[in-house]
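Let's practice the habit of predicting before peeking. Look at the sequence and jot down your guess about where helices and strands might fall. Then scroll down.
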Amino acid sequence: MKKNIIPLARSDIQVQDIAEVAKVLNSGMLVQGLEVLQLENIISKYIHTDYCSAISNGTASLQLALISLGIGPGDEVIIPSYSFVSTANAFVLRGAKIVFADSRPDHPGIDGDKIKELIAPRTKVIVPIHCEGAACGIDTTE
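Done guessing? Here is the structure:
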């Protein structure tokens, strides 16, 4: 039985992309290495900063942001109930308490009205997620 699958994204992988990946794999440097240093230098120049660090994945990136913000045990964070698991994982790994907010019926993003109902004294962070190419619309009248 053939199932209909609706892709969330379409890949655009070129021959040169494959060659560059093969170059890294053949170098034996699957982390760090010359290509990562070059990427960090290009990004540093582009955003006009002296420092840039490539991070291995989204969860690790979120964790670093949370560390820099001082988010930790006992802090509450409001996140959308519809998101990739790494959104919640980063906060759980920091010991924060997850509070899920529903999405709007007409949009995958977090419902701004639901956020207002969930804010509590220990709420430290609200994380709106732009989902599946749709910018999070949390405009409210207040």
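How did you do? The chain has a mean pLDDT of 86.
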